[in-house]
Amino acid sequence: MDLRVTTERATDEERAAVDAVLGAATTGWAGGARSEIDRHVAYGGRAAREAHRDLLLPVLHSLQEKVGWISKAALGYLCARLDIAPAEAFGVASAYELLSLEPMSQVVVHVCDDIACIARTGSDPCGAVRAAHGPPGEEQGGLSWKPSPCLGHCEHGSAALVQRSGEGGGRATVAPFDGAALERVATSVAPVPELGTSAPAPAPASRAAEMALPVALVPQASSDRSSLRLLRRVGVVDPTSIDAYRAAGGYEALRRALSLGPEGVLSELKAANLLGRGGAAFPTAAKWSAVAHNPVRPHFFVANADESEPGTFKDRVLLETDPFALVEAVTIAGVVTGAERGFVYLRGEYPLAEERLEGAIAQARAHGLLGDDVMSSGHVFELEIRRGAGAYIAGEETALFNSIEGLRPEPRNKPPFPVDRGLFGKPTGINNVETLLCVLEVLSIGGAEFASIGTASSSGTRLFCVSGCVSSPGLYEVPLGTTLRELLDLAGGVRGGRELRSVLLGGAAGSFVLPEQLDIELSFEAVRSAGTTLGSGVVMVMDDTVDIAQILQRIAQFFRDESCGQCVPCRVGTVRQEELLERLSSRRPLGSVQAERALLADLGTVMRDSSICGLGQTASSAIESAVAKGLLASLEEVS
Fold first, then answer.
1. Is 571:521 a contact under the CB 8 Å cutoff?
2. SS3 state of residue 4
3. Which of 169, 233, 283, 458 has its CA 20 to 30 A from that of 189?
4. Cis peptide upstream of residue 416 (ω within 30 degrees of 0)
C-alpha cells in the first residue's frame, strides 16, 4: 500500500528548498519525473534510507527558512526524496520548537521569558512586547511573536530570536531586547549562510565593533587577563581570522598531539585528571581511551554545543569569540580516538556562533588542518555542523545522536554506552565545548601542571555563567575550589546592594543555595557532599525582589514542555509537578500542605528513580531544594 501524507503536490518553492540540500531528484521513485524504467524497477530502498536519513533535519531547516513552515505536501515530497515513512518524518518535525507544521508569519520573534530574564528584569519579561503588539501569535503586518525558553543570552537579562523566512530571510538574536522596537529589530535580520558555505568576513569597521562587545560578556577581561586560560583570547583575537588565531598560539596543541601520538595524549589527559564539564564529571581520558581502543570501525566524535539549560551561555560566548579553538580541539579528539568524521551539534538559537564556526571550519580545511591529511600527518578527519532546532532534550547525548541521524530526539536506554554503540551505531566520543577547550590547555601546559590547578579531585579552571540580580553578569573563569562567595564578589555582589535571597546553582536542573552557604567550595566533590551540583556552570543570583514562586512555576513549566514524552515517569510526573506548584502558589492545596509536600517528594523520587534520562531525573531537583529550604513562602503561609 502506498501511504501518503496528502495528495497535494509540493509547490515549486517547497521542492526547491528540499532540492537545495539533496540535489535534484533523479528518479520518479524519489520525487522526480517518472521515466519508462521506473515502471519496472525501483532503485534505492533501505540503502538509500541509510545513506541519506541524516539529512532529514537539514532539509526541514531549509523548508522552514525558505518557505516559513512545513506543509503536508512539502513533508510528502521530502519523504519521497529520502524514502522515509511520512509518520516518521512528522514525528521528527513535530519534536522541535523552531520548526512549524502550521503557517506562520514571515517574521516570528521568540522572546525569552525564562528564569534568568525573570530574575534580572522583573516578573514579566514579555510585558513590553505584549503591551505594544498584543498577545502571542497575533499577526501584525507579517510579524508575530511568541514566548520562548532561555535563549542563552542570560548576561543581558533579556533576549529575542528573530526568524525571517523567504527571500532575504535568516535568523538573528537581539540582546538586550527592547520589545518596543520589535519592527525595527525584525527588519534588520541578516541572511544566514547556505549549508556547507562559510560566511563572508565582516568589514573591518564592523569587525572592530563586534570584537569590542565580548569584553563586557567576560568582565574579568577588562581588569586582569592573567587569570584567564580558556577565555584568554576573547575580545583580543579576531574570531574570523585563522592567521590571528595561529599568531596567538593556535594549533600548537594539535601539533603537540600529533607529536605525542594517541597514547601520549591519553597519558597527558589521565595525568591532568580532566573531568567532563557537562555535569556528569566523567574522566575524559577514560572516555577517549574506550573509543580509541574499540576494534569496531568507523569511529565518530561529536562536540555537544547544544547548551539549553536555562542560565547557560558559555558555549555561545566561546563559539562567537573563539571558534577556531573548538575546531582544533575536536580535530585532536578525532586523531586520538581514531575518528575520521566529526560533528558539532550546535544549538539552533545561535546564528552568529554558527556563522563563525562555519567560517572557522572552512579556513581550517583550506589550510590543511582538516580533511584528508591533517597538518601533513596522514590523519584523516572531516568536521561538519549539525544545527539543532529548539529541543532541550537533544542535549542528552543519545537523543543528540538520534537527532543527527534524522530520528526523533529521544534518549536511548543505556547500556550500550556511546563508546560502544553511539552515532550511527558505531563507537563515538562526545564532550561539551568547555571540556574540549580544556584539552587544549592540558596539551599546552602539560597534564601535571593542569592537575596542579584547582583541588586534588577537581583539576583546572571552570567557567561559570553568572546572571540574575548581580552587579556584573557575564562569563567568569576561576580555578575549581573557588568559593561561591569569592565568585560573587568578583561579579560585584548583589546589584544595588540589596539583600541576597538565594543562588540557583546548575540551572533549572540544579538546586538553590542560601546566603549562609556562600562559603561552599565550587568543586565537584564539595558540591556533591553539600547535596547540590555545578551542572553546566549556572550561577543565578536572586535578591529579595524576586518572586521565587514564579521562578519555580517557570521551571516546572519548562520541564513539562521539554519532556520528550517517551517515558511515563517524566511525561506524567512533570505535569503533576506543575499542577501541584500551581495549587500551592495560589494557596489552594489539595488537602493539607503537608500532604502536598509529601506528594511532591514522591513525584521527585519516582522521576529520579525511573526516568530514562537526566531530564526526568533532575526535573524536581530545584523545586524540591527550594521547598526544603523554605524559599516557597506560600507553603509557610498556608501552613
1. no
2. coil
3. 233
4. yes
Q: Which residues of 29-38 are buried (b: 16+ CB within 10 A; e: fewer)?
A: bbbbeeeeee
The predicted-structure confidence for 15-29, as pLDDT tens digits, reads as follows 999 999 999 887 666
CA distance 234 to 514: 32
**Directed axis angle between helix 86-93 and helix 72-82, to 10°?**
120
Q: What is the pLDDT of residue 201?
A: 35
Q: Give the confidence band of 563 by pLDDT, cuts at 50, 70, 90.
A: very high
Radius of gyration of the chain (CA): 24
What nine digits make up the cell of 583? 495549587
H or E segment at 462? strand 461-468
Using one digit for the tens of pLDDT, what is the confidence trace for 516-536?
999 999 999 999 999 999 999
Task: Look up residue 57 and give its three cell numbers.
Answer: 533535519
271 within 8 A of 443, measured Cβ to Cβ: no
Residues in the chain: 639
Q: Distance (Å, rounded) from C-alpha 123 to C-alpha 355?
A: 34
Q: How far apart are CA 452 and CA 458, in angstroms?
A: 10
C-alpha span between 430 and 333 (Å, rounded)? 9
For residue 626, give the nearest of 590, 584, 589, 591 by alpha carbon.
584
Question: Reading across the β-sheet that carries 428-432, which strands appear in turn?
Answer: 382-387, 339-346, 299-305, 428-432
Q: Is 498 left (phi over 0), alpha (psi -120 to 50) or beta?
A: beta
Alpha-carbon distance values, 181 to 106, 128, 575 (Å): 17, 10, 35
Give me the half-sphere count of Cα atoms (radius 13 Å) on the Cβ side of residue 298: 12
Task: For 572-635, give the DSSP string.
Answer: HHHHHHHHHHHHHHTT--SS-HHHHHHHHHHHHHHHHHH-SSHHHHHTTHHHHHHHHTT--HHH
The string of DSSP codes covering 39-85 is: GT----THHHHHHHGGGHHHHHHHHHHHHSS--HHHHHHHHHHHT--
* Closest to 54 measured CA to CA, from 305, 426, 393, 562: 426
Question: Is pTM, for the whole model, over 0.90?
Answer: yes
As given in the structure block, the three cell numbers for residue 119 are 530574575
Helix, strand, coil abundance in the chain, percent, nearest 5: 45, 15, 40
Pairing mode of beta strands 143-148, 160-164: unpaired
* Grid cell listed for 52: 541519506
Three-state DSSP string of 360-415: HHHHHHHCCCCECCHHHCCCCEEEEEEECCCCHHHHCHHHHHHHHCCCCCCCCCCC
Cβ atoms 332, 443 nearer than 8 A:
yes
Q: Is the separation of the CB atoms in 382 and 370 below 8 Å?
A: yes
Q: What is the DSSP string of 136-197?
A: TT--BTTEEEEEES--S-TTTS--EEEEE-STT-EEEEESS--GGGHHHHHTTPPBPPPTT-
